[in-house]
Amino acid sequence: MPELPEVETVRIGLAEHLLHRPIAAVAVSHSRAIRRHAAGKLDFQRRLIGANFQNVKRRGKFLWLSIADQALMIHLGMSGQCLVVSPSAARHRHERIRIEFTDGHNALSFVDQRTFGGAHLDELAVDKFNQLVPKSVHHIGLDPFDPDFDLTGAAKQLRTRRIEVKRALLDQAAVSGIGNIYADEALWLAKVHPRRTADSLSIKSAQNLLQAAAEVMQQALRQGGTSFDELYVNVNGESGYFSRCLNAYGQAGRPCPRCSRPIKRERFTNRYSHLCPHCQRAPQR
DNA sequence: CAACCGCCCTGGGTGC
DNA sequence: TGCACCCAGGGCGGTT
């Protein structure tokens, strides 16, 4: 599943291939992929054709390619992929958008089986962090890879929430980029139970938790991200290797690498948490 | 306003 | 072989 390390891997790949090349053609083969572009398909195509991508940036799981005062925003959702493909290669079965360039070289193919992801054009504007970013990321917090990320400030903000700490990690407000995999991994590493309320954490353990999230995502990035199947790959279609390093996520029944007691999987808001009930003490009911 | 719920979507897997 | 159902789950609109 694409979370911060996977999206960052994709960002680096796009930066290597797609910048400063005039766009020749934009094909949209599934309208749901551009549902967030309110002005519709023709407007989407008209704004892109002839433009150049100047840079590729990211905040949390949102990715964008800048073109003058606008940006092509991309969110991978659950199963989105940005593939750099030869224009002559066969179209992927789940290709939703294709962007081709006037030089006739590598094209961008946005592939998305489950269509939770998509792209739209958005205006760039200065946000509360004094960064020039698309308006559609103004509501989320900085991620731990951002040079301006303030771990102490984020920990304080986390502690204002009267909800379970895992929910607070997942909702992108205090910190962005964390999804179910890295939430479970960070909570395991910091020995915090996912159902503890965020406001029950000491300032020190909240900081420790965010530090753990940053570390685990940094490690995952070094491995090229987490791949379980063909649904997450880099721009060249290659898998990442971090799934071999997971301590809790997807490890139900296996021994906890710290204490050897079995990792447990339990229901958590329409999905699952993976944790060590011994290392991560449950809150009092 | 914070918190919470349900919906969006597909293909692979499982149980009957 | 076929059908119903489950599962992956981020983001967001609507409701409490």
Question: Number of DSSP helices?
Answer: 6
From the alpha-carbon coordinates, what is the Rg to the nearest angstrom? 20 Å
Report how far the terminal alpha carbons are from each other.
32 Å
Topology order in helix (H) and strand (E) letters = HEHEEEEEEEEHHHHEE
Low-confidence stretches: none
Structural class from helices and strands? Answer: alpha+beta
- The number of distinct β-strands equals 11
Give the neighbour order of strands across the main sheet: 2-3-4-8-9
CATH superfamily of the largest domain: MutM-like, N-terminal
Task: Describe this entry's structure for a reader.
- The structure is a single chain.
- The protein is globular.
- The chain has 6 helices and 11 strands.
- A 5-stranded antiparallel sheet has the order 2-3-4-8-9. It has a 4-stranded antiparallel sheet with strand order 1-6-7-5, with helices on one face.
- The model has no long low-confidence stretch (mean pLDDT 93).
- The chain has helices at residues 4-17, 41-48, 151-158, 165-170, 180-190, 203-222, and strands at 23-28, 55-59, 62-67, 70-75, 80-85, 95-101, 107-112, 118-126, 132-134, 264-268, 271-275.
- A hairpin with a 2-residue loop joins strand 3 and strand 4.
- By secondary structure, the chain is an alpha+beta fold.
- The chain has 2 domains: 4-137, N-terminal domain of MutM-like DNA repair proteins (Alpha-Beta Barrel); 151-275, Helicase, Ruva Protein, domain 3 (Orthogonal Bundle), CATH 1.10.8.
